[in-house]
Amino acid sequence: MITSLSNDKVKLTRTLARRRVRERERRFIMEGIRMLSEVVRAEVLPDFVLHTEAAARNLDAIPLLNSLAQRGVPCHLVSSEVMDTCADTVTPPGLLAVVPFPDVPPPSRTSWTLVVDNVRTPGNLGAILRTAAATGVEQVLLSPGTVDQYNPKVVRGGAGAHFRLPIFGLEWDDIRARLRRLDVWLAAIRGDLPYTTVNWARPLALIVGGEARGASSAAIELASGRVMLPMAREVESLNAAVATGVLLYEIYRQRRIEGLLK
To answer: Domain holding 50: CATH number?
Structure first.
């Protein structure tokens, strides 16, 4: 059993709480049975797994640990104190994996791109990624003002979306290059058209901005049109993840009718 905080694997796991370390190591943390199930389903090999005695006795965790061990993944028993220092959650599930960044290639030709701009709240980005995976988005581009996609709260909110979606954090010049030949729509409180009147079956990109600061000037300049969600007069705005979900499902509905989804 690992009980020392000076253990090399423990020290690495703790430092992955910092974005710059994640980017340097190209690794991140996934916690809990549900998240490790996504790792196994995606056929990704973690660098190693840490677990407590309680997790090793959990009937749902046992087959996961056995599956990973059979594939050669080191699974280390640690003390509850060590797990508490390594985990990001308030009540650690007693099971976590250090996982390499997924290598999900971009589509060779894209007709449906989501751009997330200035979304700073990790829970919102996680929910957006999860919904994007469910609605056939072909790739997600994150602007420089958006929270890190491997933030632990984003990873938990994404519920495995990181293994299903090509997600790229890019500068605006690269975003512009990837959106060539696409209709670019910006979701805005004061848009030009209600979202249900737009033809979403065309090759398109949708830019959604954060609640606090809204879309950046670069996003506004790039968009060729603005789309809005009608709301009752007394409501000022919707949560960014909720608004994005409404838009994505309308786009999904139209594209499914047109037979554009795989």
So the answer is: 3.30.1330.30
